[in-house]
């Protein structure tokens, strides 16, 4: 048998830990369901991977956090000691995650206590990706990937030849979930660390941050907000405010980048009042036109008479280096900017990337939804709830 794809429970995105801690402290009783979805038909059927996926999940459910890994997490000032103690005894339960096939489709569902199943997501996506791309000519893919990587480094170095804007360009690796392989992601990140340290400022991959002594990057994802749609602690209309307030109380100034598109930017800004706008360091873009989104954010800060130079906009929706630089040149004289690039850093190999996600579909037996500012990113199993959510937040189909 080949080396298992996942050999460390740190080999995942930082925001899984930050959301995990928040839910453990505030809503540990939530029952949740996460569902794997392939948004676009792949070149080869994913159903053929089911046996290998099962073997990888069997191995994943045998892993535990090591003491050096726990020590690394414990040194992050926003990670609490009781959460580290929880992770010390944590182990994935195989009974909470099941695979099946339907025709050419691969189905993966994780169902159980949210604090036991929410961390499956990134591991599942990384496993499916790597197994899928093992079916292609790896030598040719790696050669093409290296050629493209060198081009990205040179493209980024053009920044050094241009007139400086008010705020620097900052690049992050957000590529765990759709990477070509674990070793390739490490090679890519190491290359940027060594070749472009003035612009490359961190990775979402906690294991790589530990191994390469760089900054782990991440705050929250849609599942955090979506969970609050189903908790029943507030009216649906106020779920975003409740989620933001819980985050503020949990992290008290740390991890201050808020995700805006669970029900769309316009609906988010209606809830992101002066209180939250002052408390949070900035906003993250993950759907819709990035320029239009950024202009809305800046106009919102202006209406609240907040100096946008003290805030940060993080862009993370399907970027490559060229697009990140375009957005940077549009905004960097008016506000701080950061750019999280995923697939186009860690899986730009001349092969068609998979479009796969594993999203929260229900909490406590109630449906949840992400409306997003990009129609293709909508995910909800319950049309009645989706229609109601749109009505509550005045979001058109």
Automatic annotation (TrEMBL):
GO terms for molecular function: glycosyltransferase activity; nicotinate phosphoribosyltransferase activity. The modification Phosphohistidine is found at residue 222. Residues 169-395 form the Nicotinate/nicotinamide phosphoribosyltransferase domain. Pfam families: NAPRTase, NAPRTase_N. GO terms for cellular component: cytosol. InterPro entries: N/Namide_PRibTrfase, NAPRTase_N, Nic_PRibTrfase, Nic_PRibTrfase-Fam, Nicotinate_pribotase-like_C. It catalyses: 5-phospho-alpha-D-ribose 1-diphosphate + nicotinate + ATP + H2O = nicotinate beta-D-ribonucleotide + ADP + phosphate + diphosphate. Residues 10-129 form the Nicotinate phosphoribosyltransferase N-terminal domain. Its EC number is 6.3.4.21. Pathway: Cofactor biosynthesis; NAD(+) biosynthesis; nicotinate D-ribonucleotide from nicotinate: step 1/1. Keywords: Glycosyltransferase, Ligase, Phosphoprotein, Pyridine nucleotide biosynthesis, Transferase. Transiently phosphorylated on a His residue during the reaction cycle. Phosphorylation strongly increases the affinity for substrates and increases the rate of nicotinate D-ribonucleotide production. Dephosphorylation regenerates the low-affinity form of the enzyme, leading to product release. One of its GO terms (biological process) is NAD+ biosynthetic process via the salvage pathway. Belongs to the NAPRTase family. Catalyzes the synthesis of beta-nicotinate D-ribonucleotide from nicotinate and 5-phospho-D-ribose 1-phosphate at the expense of ATP. This is Nicotinate phosphoribosyltransferase. It comes from Corticibacter populi.
């Amino acid at each position: 048998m080949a080396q298992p794809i996942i050999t460390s429970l740190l080999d995942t995105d930082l925001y899984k830990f930050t959301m995990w801690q928040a839910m453990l402290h505030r809503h540990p009783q939530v029952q949740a369901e996460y569902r794997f979805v392939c948004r676009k038909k792949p070149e080869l059927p994913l159903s053929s991977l089911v046996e290998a996926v099962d073997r990888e999940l069997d191995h994943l459910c045998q892993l535990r956090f090591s003491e050096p890994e726990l020590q690394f997490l414990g040194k992050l000032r926003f990670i609490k000691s009781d959460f580290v103690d929880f992770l010390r005894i944590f182990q994935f339960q195989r009974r909470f995650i099941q695979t099946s096939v339907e025709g050419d489709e691969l189905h993966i569902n994780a169902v159980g206590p949210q604090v036991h199943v929410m961390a499956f997501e990134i591991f599942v996506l990384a496993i499916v990706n790597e197994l899928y791309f093992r079916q292609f000519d790896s030598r040719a893919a790696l050669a093409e990937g290296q050629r493209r990587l060198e081009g990205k480094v040179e493209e980024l170095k053009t920044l050094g030849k241009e007139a400086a804007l008010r705020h620097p360009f900052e690049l992050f690796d957000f590529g765990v979930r759709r990477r070509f392989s674990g070793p390739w992601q490490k090679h890519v990140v190491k290359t940027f660390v060594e070749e472009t340290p003035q612009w490359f400022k961190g990775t979402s991959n906690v294991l790589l941050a530990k191994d390469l002594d760089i900054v782990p990057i991440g705050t929250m994802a849609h599942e955090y907000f979506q969970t609050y749609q189903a908790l029943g602690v507030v009216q649906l209309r106020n779920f975003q405010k409740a989620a933001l307030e819980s985050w503020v109380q949990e992290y008290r100034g740390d991890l201050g980048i808020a995700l805006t598109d669970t029900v769309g930017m316009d609906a988010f800004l209606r809830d992101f009042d002066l209180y939250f706008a002052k408390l949070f360091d900035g906003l993250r873009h993950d759907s819709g036109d990035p320029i239009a989104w950024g202009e809305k954010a800046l106009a919102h800060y202006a209406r609240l008479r907040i100096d946008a130079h003290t805030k940060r906009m993080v862009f993370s929706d399907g970027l490559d280096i060229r697009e990140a630089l375009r957005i940077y040149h549009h905004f960097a004289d008016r506000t701080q900017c950061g750019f999280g690039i995923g697939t186009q850093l860690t899986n730009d190999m001349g092969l068609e990337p998979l479009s796969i996600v594993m999203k929260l579909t229900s909490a406590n037996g109630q449906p949840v939804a992400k409306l997003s500012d990009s129609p293709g990113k909508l995910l909800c199993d319950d049309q009645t709830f989706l229609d109601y959510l749109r009505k509550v937040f005045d979001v058109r189909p």
